[in-house]
Write a structure and sequence with these properties.
Blueprint (H helix, E strand, L loop, with lengths): L1 E7 L11 H4 L4 H15 L1 E7 L3 H11 L5 E5 L8 H10 L3 E5 L21 E4 L4 H15 L1
Parallel strand pairs: 1-2, 1-3, 3-4, 4-5
Helix pairs in contact: 2-5, 3-4
C-alpha cells in the first residue's frame, strides 16, 4: 500500500474561522476526514501534519522519506517566501503536489509566485477543499504509474 503525507503550513489550523470567502467553511479536521475517506477508496495510507513553524515543516518532510511514497503540501504563506522548504522538497526526492484552497493567481500579486511549485510534480489551487482530494487522486495515480 502506498503512503502519503498530507502536510499543512501556517494558519491552516484556523480553517473554518479564517477568511471563509477565501478558504471556505470547513475545518482542517473536516478536510482531513474527506481525504481519509477518499484514501480508503484509493487504497492508500494517509498521514496528516500541520505546523505554523517552518523548521517543523522541514523536519516532517525529512522524516517522511523513511515511510512516505509521496507528499501533498499546502505550505500556506511559506509558498511565497521559503527557500528552505523548497530546498527540502528538492532534496527528499519524493513526488510532491502543492495545494492551495484559494486561487493564488486571483489574489494579491505577491501570492502569484510560489517558490515551491518549481520543485513539485504539480500544483492544484482554487478548488477549495477539493484541491486536496484532486491532489490525493492525482498523487495516487502518479505513484501507481
Amino acid at each position: 500500500m502506498q503512503s502519503i503525507l498530507i502536510q499543512n503550513g501556517p494558519n491552516l489550523n484556523l480553517l473554518g474561522k479564517r477568511e471563509p470567502a477565501h478558504y471556505g467553511n470547513l475545518t482542517l479536521e473536516e478536510i482531513n476526514q474527506k481525504c481519509s475517506d477518499l484514501a480508503k477508496t484509493l487504497e492508500v495510507e494517509v498521514r496528516f501534519a500541520q505546523s505554523n513553524i517552518e523548521g517543523v515543516l522541514i523536519d516532517t518532510l525529512q522524516e517522511a522519506v523513511k515511510w512516505a511514497d509521496g507528499v501533498i503540501i499546502n505550505p500556506g504563506g511559506y509558498s511565497h517566501t521559503s527557500v528552505a522548504i523548497r530546498d527540502t522538497i528538492s532534496a527528499i526526492k519524493l513526488p510532491v503536489i502543492e495545494v492551495h484552497l484559494s486561487n493564488i493567481y486571483a489574489r494579491e500579486e505577491f501570492r502569484h509566485t510560489s517558490l515551491i511549485s518549481p520543485v513539485c510534480v504539480g500544483t492544484i489551487a482554487g478548488l477549495g477543499w477539493r484541491s486536496y482530494t484532486a491532489a490525493l487522486t492525482s498523487l495516487a495515480g502518479i505513484l501507481n504509474d
